[in-house]
Design brief:
seven-stranded mixed beta sheet; about 180 residues; about 45% helix; alpha/beta
């Protein structure tokens, strides 16, 4: 009995230690990320309704919300949930100098299917495809965890807020106040 209790207590502290290590690692990643400048490649493919063009990034406005979907995420799932980003896009229509850049980075074997699905979707806002994987190559400090693949950048490309605000009321309030501050600059 004492041995079982000891093992249970040891397991509990191991889990606590592990979760604290993970939390510490994430905190460190986010801190390092906030010190970088995010570069959005110019060679992205822009899908706007049925039109396909090159992005031709002309630089940042006052603020850019990047929503990044890498090749590890289920593309069909992400496409079916794009409507959840509508509140962000509505704010981009409201604020001059704020844009939302949603980037898909598929593996090359999924590129044709993604492009076909994006055109069929006829999403009301532009979407971008990173064919060559340059977004991650140019921004190696983006945290690995997909929870942190949505971030607000200031006019210099510096991350000022990380996390998707559409999934939490508290995060949305923080996002709105941070965005309002950027718009005043």
């Amino acid at each position: 009995m004492k041995r079982d209790v000891f093992i249970l207590i040891l397991s509990f502290f191991s889990v606590l230690s592990l979760s604290s290590c993970v939390e510490s690692r994430i905190r460190k990643e986010l801190k390092e990320f906030s010190r970088t400048t995010v570069v959005i490649p110019e060679n992205l493919v822009k899908v706007d309704g049925m039109n396909i063009t090159e992005y031709g990034n002309s630089g940042f406005g006052k603020a850019v919300m990047v929503v990044y979907y890498d090749s590890t995420e289920c593309t069909e799932c992400r496409l079916s949930h794009l409507y959840e980003l509508n509140p962000l896009y509505e704010l981009s229509d409201k604020y001059d100098g704020f844009e939302v850049v949603t980037i898909f980075s598929p593996v090359i074997t999924e590129y044709d299917a993604l492009m076909e699905n994006l055109v069929k979707l006829r999403f009301a806002h532009p979407l971008y495809v990173d064919v060559s994987g340059d977004f991650m190559k140019n921004n190696p400090d983006i945290p690995d965890d997909a929870l942190y693949h949505c971030f607000l950048l200031d006019s210099c490309g510096t991350p000022v807020l990380t996390g998707n605000p559409v999934y939490s009321d508290d995060m949305w309030k923080l996002f709105e106040s941070t965005l309002a501050g950027l718009m005043e600059e």
